[in-house]
Amino acid sequence: MTDMSLVERLLAMPKFGDGIGLQRMLWLRKAAEAGSEGKSGSYIKVTGSNGKGGTTAMIAAMLAAGGLRTARYISPHLHRFNERISVNGVDITNSDLENGLAWIQQATQTYGREQGATTFGAFECTTALAYRYFLQQGAGHGVLEAGIGGRFDSVRALPGSVCALTSLDLEHTHLLGDTLELIGYDKLSLCPPGGTMVLFPLGDHDLLQRLRAYAALNQIALFECAERCQVELVTAEVDGARFHAEIDGLHIADLRLPLLGAHQVQNAVVAMAAVKLYVEREELGWSAATMAQAMRTGLARVQWPGRASYVPGPPPLFYDVGHTPAATAAFLATIQPFIAGKAVLLLLGVSHNKAVEAMTATLVTVADEVVCTRAYHMGAPVERVAAAVRAADSGLPCSVFETIEAGVAQALQIATEREMTVVIAGGLFFAMEAMAVVRGDDPRGLRFF
Q1: Is 323 helix (H, G, I), strand (E, B) or coil?
Q2: Total number of domains constituting the chain
Q3: Among 301, 336, 361, where does a domain finish?
Q4: pTM value?
Q5: Per-residue pLDDT tens for 240-274?
Q6: 206 shares its domain with 68
Q7: Can you give the residue range of the structural domain that contains 432?
Q8: What is the rounded CA–CA span in Å between residue 78 and residue 83?
């Protein structure tokens, strides 16, 4: 079966099932375990408004470096759906994915006969498919990334009592709530009673107090990185960072992270804390030296494209898949040292359901010229993006192109002729489609859900 026919079948699933669906997910979990000789796993679960994907990649790399057969489940994918489900860095094959789809179809039909007719959502089916695959592959350890929030997320139904919260921002407010407090409560609920949630350094003292109370009421222990971890940044270059860290008494010197940005170092601290807690809770028997070496080796090997990524060109360009105002601001802060004093051309497009005006106002602050266009998938009308540019800076040169192919071609031509640096930003769909065009691929061949 070809990649495209697999994706078409996946896209044919309803995005959401009937109601919340945690009861369906628990049933699918038991079905996966029953079909795998009663095996079960235990996984670190990661949530957060921003940074959860990179943190997940770091955790997986460190566990694998420690010798564990490591599962990793992420969403969304960037290029191929198979990226979502991997063991020791190897993506699920089309054959195994096809087998999993056949199992899901049979399992959902059985559920309908036994429990009554209902509609299953795509994410819960994919999550169950991934769990079954991990058990079949003997990958009982690893890391799972929540899709949205935590309280009603399908990942919540899978086993694991060590969780991590990487950040909080106003996102998916129609589902999670319209305040950081409500969003924080939802994400904390990913962690089961008796479990531990690793909490990123949260500077808002009032919000922290509220999260502490919610965690206590739900019997969730908080591991606060701000209180129990320290980091010393040594260097930050375009190819990554070097730093020293102390994670709850474990000292690890000379760590190298081949990802750009101080926020990635913060994510690495969260990831290291989660790994340390997981190894201890699962009684894996790692010595301090083994753990430090697994962390050092894993972080040095981690790969996570699309997050403040640099392509030397010509023309040189930075691109990022951040899709919230906070993620956009973090991206600009990350690349600022490397674009200071240089002319910048911003290639801009934002999804129609995101904060178009707020993100645009932030992004144009680094631009000397803007090319506005749109992604095929969920792209906001180009004139809306251009209007947001004019509202933010009426004197900024701004051109408009209806197709992303034309917009990319114009941006690369201008940047090459005028020796400018290209910055591609506005969201995941836009950045990945734009980079497909840069590589000479058809952006319409990318499929997302």
Answers
A1: coil
A2: 2
A3: 301
A4: 0.89
A5: 899 999 999 999 999 999 998 888 999 999 999 99
A6: yes
A7: 309-445
A8: 8
